[in-house]
Write a structure and sequence with these properties.
By secondary structure, the chain is an alpha/beta fold. The protein has 2 domains: 132 residues, Beta-Lactamase, CATH 3.30.450; 242 residues, P-loop containing nucleotide triphosphate hydrolases (Rossmann fold), CATH 3.40.50.300. The chain is 37% helix and 24% strand. The strands form 3 sheets. A 7-stranded antiparallel beta sheet has the order 2-6-5-4-9-8-7. Strand 4 and strand 5 form a beta hairpin. Helix 6 runs parallel beside helix 7.
């Protein structure tokens, strides 16, 4: 199958069956090549062409010795744009230089730390969260595509009970998950709901700013790391003097930021942040583990008193449709979860147990959600088992489905064998 785009020099798959081809005249004659296309493709045209490859592009990746690549539903696809089939070190250097565009803070960070984060925009088209880093002495680039519109609960298909977060008055709400699991999108949807329903002062501290929030009922000030503030901790401490009701910290990266976030929650602010952890219990251990042993019990007590929700999410490939579906685990503050968090988990008294028994409080666990998606036919059983927190328990829960799949596979194999046995042999004699 071939699709056409209007941009000459646009993307096509490398070694792929589906290709985006350059349009040619109706008589089939190729358009004459223009000398300009022998020159390096301008970076903005390169990015715009790559974005045309699919509406599901989530990342653009540039690495020396590889073609330009896009990530779609968690898988990399190599593409050719114009004459640019394989990137050289000079190509990635040029693209990085264009993206940095004299950003002295990012240039300095790249030079001293070997990597830098920044945002980049294609005017009127797309915005990106960019990481430029050194590898094998050359520059490589990863660009995360940022949605043009602020996401909503409905667009993200988030659990309806998460809307209750918008009515909180204080405390900490954490959204966790691996890189690329949609944490920023979930937080943006929550902030947008608060913005629509409450007249609050909201301060966000981000690295970099992803979704642009317009003033609605609330007044929102968005601060970007490096351009507006040198660090999360300094910006967070300053926010305590800026009379906000809601504070969003892009990531709790270090001990100082965690301490100030706890202080903010304890003094009547509603604090949102993210962590790169896979579930609620790992989130608690990550936070507590940042502190020395002598302080860990105190931090457990403070966190137990301050947390309101921990939302952990993973993006899982769909079974028969493009894209991925969000699987969300929810831990909510109640007497039981606060006790387990403060006193530590042990056999029969774990946060997973509390989540599993907390349906009436709006809690839900990963494996139960995965089971539900398998039974609906949204994801395959193999995918569910690959993403499960406890693969053995999930396998037992869907054992009836696995047995049915095994019977169907056996029937198909038997039918195939029978067809081969009885089919024509084209005159060949088997010896």
């Amino acid at each position: 199958m071939r699709k056409s785009i209007k941009v000459k020099g646009g993307p096509s798959m490398v070694d792929g069956s589906e290709q985006l081809a350059v349009q040619t005249p109706a008589d089939g004659r190729k358009e004459p090549e223009h000398k300009a296309y022998c020159q390096p493709l301008p970076t903005n045209i390169l990015l715009a062409s790559m974005m045309q490859f699919s509406p599901h592009v989530s990342d653009l990746i540039f690495s020396p010795g590889r073609p330009p690549q896009v990530e779609i539903s968690g898988k990399l696809v190599a593409i050719k744009v114009g004459n640019l089939a394989v990137l050289s070190e000079a190509d990635t250097e040029r693209i990085a230089t264009d993206i940095l565009a004299g950003n002295q803070n990012a240039l300095q960070t790249l030079g001293t730390q070997g990597a830098c984060d920044l945002s980049y925009s294609l005017p009127g088209k797309s915005r990106f969260r960019v990481n430029i880093f050194m590898q094998r002495g050359s520059r490589a680039i990863v660009m995360r595509v940022i949605a043009g519109e602020t996401p909503t609960f409905e667009k993200l298909n988030l659990p309806a009970q998460l809307k209750n977060i918008a009515s909180l008055k204080n405390g900490i709400v954490l959204v966790t998950g691996p890189t690329g699991s949609g944490k920023s999108s979930t937080l943006a949807a929550i902030i947008d709901l608060i913005n629509e329903t409450h007249a609050y002062h909201i301060v966000t501290i981000e690295d970099p700013i992803e979704f642009i929030h317009r003033h609605k009922k609330s007044t929102i000030h968005q601060r970007e790391l490096h351009s507006d503030t040198p660090s999360f901790s300094l910006a967070l401490r300053a926010a305590l003097r800026q009379a906000p009701k809601v504070i969003l910290v892009g990531e709790m990266r270090d001990r100082e930021t965690i301490e100030i976030a706890l202080e903010a929650a304890e003094t009547g602010h509603l604090v949102f942040s993210t962590l790169h952890t896979i579930d609620a219990s790992k989130t608690v251990e990550r936070i507590v583990g940042v502190f020395p042993n002598s302080e860990q019990q105190l931090i457990r007590s403070r966190l137990a008193a301050s947390f309101r929700w921990i939302v952990s999410q993973r993006l899982v490939p769909r079974k028969e449709a493009p894209g991925r579906v969000a699987v969300v685990e929810i831990l909510r503050s109640n007497q039981r979860t606060r006790e387990y968090m403060e006193k530590g988990e042990r056999e029969g008294r774990s946060l997973v147990d509390a989540i599993r028994d907390g349906n009436l409080d709006g809690m839900q666990c990963f494996d139960a959600e995965l089971e539900g998606l398998v039974r609906k036919g949204a994801i395959s059983s193999d995918t569910a088992l690959a993403y499960a927190s406890n693969q053995g328990n999930l396998r037992l829960a869907i054992s009836d489905l696995l047995e049915e799949e095994e019977r169907q596979d056996s029937a198909r194999n038997a039918k195939g064998a029978a067809s081969e046995e009885n089919g024509p042999r084209n005159g060949l004699t088997l010896v």
